[in-house]
Design the sequence.
């Protein structure tokens, strides 16, 4: 899915935005003075460990200790290596920080969805008339495990973040620099998305050949009965090691082949029947990667074409194309374009509020902007006006966010049976086939945009936990399926025997909740730990490799 990304996110390249007055100073997760004061005992412990590490003279022991540190989650490793609060600060705009956190939370909810699929097809396990009355399918509550809704959020964030830096340069009349930034992003985009995905496919193939999924395969074929039982099969085992690796490479080829929108054999990544490269699907969740790449190229093309245009023309073209995508059911493209569109709206608002970002001295004269200097905006008689305007803006953003979450909760199966959504669905044009998708993409826009603009909502997604999830979000998206189908498929029948001793479909709600929670407590930390290691060992190095290749090619 989503999204893009350099370093801390999978939808954002690492190029730093141009500093502006909206920028805030943040620190690495779990590395702020407030958190350091909250953990004095832990700091002393980690200081002692760090001192011990420094005193080790044996090269072998030092190497073993380094390997141990490398296997720890990054925030624990940082505490051991740097037990006192670091003075190193990273500057980042609040909106990008909040969107990163939102992406991390959304990725956690995607994990919830696929974890739930290990028990049954939670969307179709019973007639819709029964499902609609259960609390887990009610508006807002259903978002906790709605993977399809979270993917819509990914796509909007990707469009917003990818377009932010080029738009900032375009609006500051630095078109040549903007085109250079777009060229750099285009060059690195495929490497940024496909290298980690390829690494995951090969890694899963190696795990398969080493029989990490053997118990999971046995469990799947014993417990899977139509829409009940685990829904995603583990990859099959090949007797020959080289056959297994070749099959994985063919799966990588299938993912590439799906990227070409005009290809004669262009079919969804998860479609095995009509696909040209015949291979096992090692991770069906990777269907979002070709979509991310194609839509990213669309954004870069539109930025290139509209860079020399006036703002009004650029906004008209982008808005018109976005509406066309909405009413022709090209929803992924719409979300990327909407992200770009609203990113520029936010820049226009910031400029009109006197928060321009390194603009040319003559910028305001050319555009006939008569704005009060920033120091005048701080005068006492202007404060009530500014305060009232900020309050109304935040209130409107909160209302939009809440309504957007309701739209985003639209079920993907038989939505018209749910009384809560019948009125909303009746507003959708009759010729639209995927009416639930139509409502959800509007909800994704209404939910995500206020997070980037509202001072009330941003803190919810810019705290240390959300920021950490945002950092590892791409890795979390990539690895969670393999962990579920190896570790949890092996453990679920064992835990089930201890909790109830009955199939999930015949289990009362009480034992099922206990089974679900026990598995969650086991699987979630393992997924986060695996994602953290994958992020540091593979994802970040793929980003560095993409930059190195670009430096050699330019």
Sequence:
């Amino acid at each position: 899915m989503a999204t893009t990304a350099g370093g801390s996110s999978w939808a954002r390249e690492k190029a730093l935005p141009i500093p502006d007055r909206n920028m805030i100073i943040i620190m690495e997760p779990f590395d702020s003075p407030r958190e350091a004061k909250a953990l004095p005992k832990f700091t002393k412990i980690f200081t002692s460990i760090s001192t011990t590490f420094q005193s080790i003279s044996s090269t072998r022991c030092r190497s073993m200790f380094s390997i141990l540190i490398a296997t720890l989650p990054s925030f624990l490793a940082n505490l051991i290596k740097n037990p006192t609060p670091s003075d190193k600060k990273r500057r980042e705009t609040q909106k990008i920080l909040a969107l990163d956190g939102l992406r991390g939370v959304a990725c956690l909810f995607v994990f919830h969805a696929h974890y739930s699929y290990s028990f049954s097809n939670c969307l179709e396990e019973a007639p819709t008339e029964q499902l609609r009355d259960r609390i887990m399918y009610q508006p807002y509550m259903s978002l906790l495990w709605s993977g399809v809704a979270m993917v819509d959020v990914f796509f909007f964030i990707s469009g917003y973040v990818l377009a932010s830096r080029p738009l900032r340069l375009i609006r500051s009349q630095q078109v040549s620099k903007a085109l250079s930034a777009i060229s750099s992003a285009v060059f690195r985009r495929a490497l940024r998305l496909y290298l980690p995905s390829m690494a995951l496919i090969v890694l899963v193939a190696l795990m398969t050949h080493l029989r990490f999924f053997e118990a999971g395969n046995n469990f799947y074929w014993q417990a899977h009965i139509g829409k009940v039982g685990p829904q995603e099969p583990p990859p099959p085992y090949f007797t020959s090691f080289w056959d297994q690796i070749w099959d994985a490479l063919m799966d990588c080829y299938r993912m590439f082949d799906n990227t070409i929108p005009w290809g004669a054999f262009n079919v969804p990544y998860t479609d095995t029947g009509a696909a040209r490269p015949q291979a096992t699907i090692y991770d069906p969740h990777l269907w979002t990667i070709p979509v991310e790449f194609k839509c990213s190229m669309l954004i870069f093309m539109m930025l290139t074409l509209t860079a020399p245009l006036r703002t009004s023309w650029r906004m008209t073209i982008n808005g018109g194309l976005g509406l066309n995508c909405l009413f022709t059911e090209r929803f992924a493209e719409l979300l990327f374009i909407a992200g770009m569109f609203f990113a520029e709206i936010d820049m226009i608002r910031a400029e009109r509020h006197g928060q321009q970002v390194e603009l040319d001295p003559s910028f305001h004269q050319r555009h006939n902007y008569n704005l009060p200097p920033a120091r005048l905006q701080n005068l006492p008689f202007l404060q009530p006006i500014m305060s009232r305007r900020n309050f109304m803006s935040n209130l409107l953003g909160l209302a939009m966010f809440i309504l957007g979450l309701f739209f985003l909760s639209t079920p993907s199966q038989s939505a018209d049976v749910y009384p809560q959504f019948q009125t909303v669905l009746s507003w959708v044009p009759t010729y639209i086939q995927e009416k639930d998708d139509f409502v959800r993409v509007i909800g994704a826009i209404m939910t995500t945009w206020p997070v980037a603009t509202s001072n009330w909502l941003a803190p919810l997604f810019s705290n240390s936990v959300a920021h950490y999830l945002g950092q590892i979000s791409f890795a979390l998206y990539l690895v969670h399926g393999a962990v579920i189908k190896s570790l949890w498929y092996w453990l679920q029948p064992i835990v089930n025997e201890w909790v109830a001793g009955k199939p999930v479909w015949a289990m009362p709600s009480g034992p099922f909740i206990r089974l679900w929670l026990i598995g969650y407590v086991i699987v979630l930390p393992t997924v986060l730990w695996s994602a953290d290691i994958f992020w540091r060992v593979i994802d970040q190095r793929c980003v560095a490799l993409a930059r190195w290749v670009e430096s050699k090619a330019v």
Strands lie at 23-26, 90-93.
